[in-house]
Write a structure and sequence with these properties.
It is a single chain. This protein has one domain: Rossmann fold, CATH 3.40.50.1820. Helices cover 39% and strands 15% of the residues. The chain contains eleven helices and eight strands. It has helices spanning 44-50, 79-93, 104-112, 133-147, 151-160, 168-178, 183-198, 202-210, 228-231, 258-272, 287-295, and strands at 4-10, 14-21, 29-33, 55-59, 97-101, 121-125, 215-220, 241-246. Strands 1-2-4-3-5-6-7-8 form an eight-stranded mixed β-sheet, sandwiched between helices. Strand 7 (215-220), helix 9 and strand 8 (241-246) form a beta-alpha-beta unit. Helix 3 packs parallel to helix 8 (202-210), helix 4 (133-147) packs antiparallel against helix 5 and helix 4 (133-147) packs antiparallel against helix 7 (183-198). The longest helix is centred in the middle third of the chain and has 16 residues, at 183-198. The protein is globular and about 50 Å long. The chain starts with a strand and ends in a 16-residue tail after the last helix. It comes from Pseudomonas cavernicola. Residues 29-257 form the AB hydrolase-1 domain. Keywords: Hydrolase.
């Protein structure tokens, strides 16, 4: 099903490309928040199991994807700006739920701390409460490559660290995406990484203290960069929270293999909808179906977020 697309203006400052997948039978709307530099394409697999249940909203940050031609790129966008964009889109589309991936979790927690009146639940995928040693090593390695616009080494670094558990076909398309970004996107990511490395990540914990809606944190068992253990540090700060670890899976969760797709689907739907309201889940897509998404160029710009070197 093709989405409705639109450019939404935010405070006369940003123009944001959006996609809306409508479901006439759904009474809830969920908005998905990309990681840094990702595009709407990064959620291709996620939409497959959300759209039969919800109206689904995707969007590109002003500096990326199909938002990029509509905006100026003189100054980097801060995580606070991304949170404000999210809050405006929640109101614009009357969203009930939020789902974030990787660095998108930072903006999502900041936004939820402002207690948007419409939001009932939120899912935070592949995000943690601290910068551990593997993540710090990863981010510090990327700084010089990004500043020099060293496309080869940026792409290589992503695929040998956060993206190392992706199928080989996805890695090839991931590399193509990461190594073909505009120069301002590299500078945006460089800004994000410096922000992450120099600021106290306790700000995210402080945000969690102010959040009143139930949260689900989902992390991959093999993800050493945003580990399940580090995500559980939020437990003492969020009033209502649950945690799910997806077995035999790294940072990219539902993109890594069909069992991960199925298990991530079950974790998300089990949290977002009461068990009694769940119809029989759709079968897991065959691996060939996942490969067709990659081959069609709709691969992971998830890499564009944590895959793109930031959290």
């Amino acid at each position: 099903m093709k989405p409705e697309t639109a450019i939404v203006e935010i405070h006369k400052k940003y123009k944001v490309y959006t996609e809306r997948y409508l479901n006439d039978a759904a009474d809830k709307t969920i908005i998905l928040v990309n990681g840094s530099l990702a595009t709407t394409a990064s959620f291709a697999q996620t939409v497959r199991y959300l759209q039969p249940r919800f109206n689904v909203i995707l969007y590109d940050q002003p500096y990326a994807g199909q938002s990029r031609p509509h905006n100026r790129h003189g100054q980097p966008i801060r995580k606070e700006d991304e949170a404000e964009i999210l809050l405006e889109l929640i109101e614009h589309f009357c969203a009930d739920h939020v789902l974030s991936f990787s660095w998108g979790g930072a903006a999502t927690l900041l936004a939820l701390a402002q207690r948007p009146r419409r939001i009932e639940k939120a899912v935070i995928n592949s995000f943690a409460a601290r910068i551990n040693t593997p993540m710090r090593d990863y981010l510090e390695s990327g700084l010089s490559f990004l500043q020099a616009c060293d496309r080869f080494n940026v792409g290589r670094l992503v695929n040998t660290t956060i993206g190392k558990h992706l199928p080989s076909l996805f890695k090839r398309f991931n590399y193509r995406h990461v190594s073909s970004l505009a120069e301002h996107e590299y500078m945006q990511l460089h800004f994000h990484i410096r922000e992450v490395l120099t600021q106290d990540t306790q700000c995210y914990v402080a945000c969690a203290d102010a959040i009143e809606v139930p949260l689900l944190f989902v992390n991959g068992e093999w993800d050493e960069y945003t580990s399940a253990e580090d995500a559980r540090l939020f437990a003492g700060h969020v009033r209502q929270c649950q945690f799910r670890t997806i077995k035999n899976t790294g940072h990219f969760l539902d993109m890594e293999h069909k069992a991960a797709w199925h298990d991530t689907q079950q974790a998300l739907l089990g949290f977002l909808q009461p068990v009694s309201s769940l119809a029989k889940p759709k079968s897991t897509p065959p691996l060939g179906s996942l490969h067709r998404y990659a081959a069609s160029g709709r691969l992971y710009s998830h890499s564009a977020a944590h895959s793109h070197l930031t959290r």
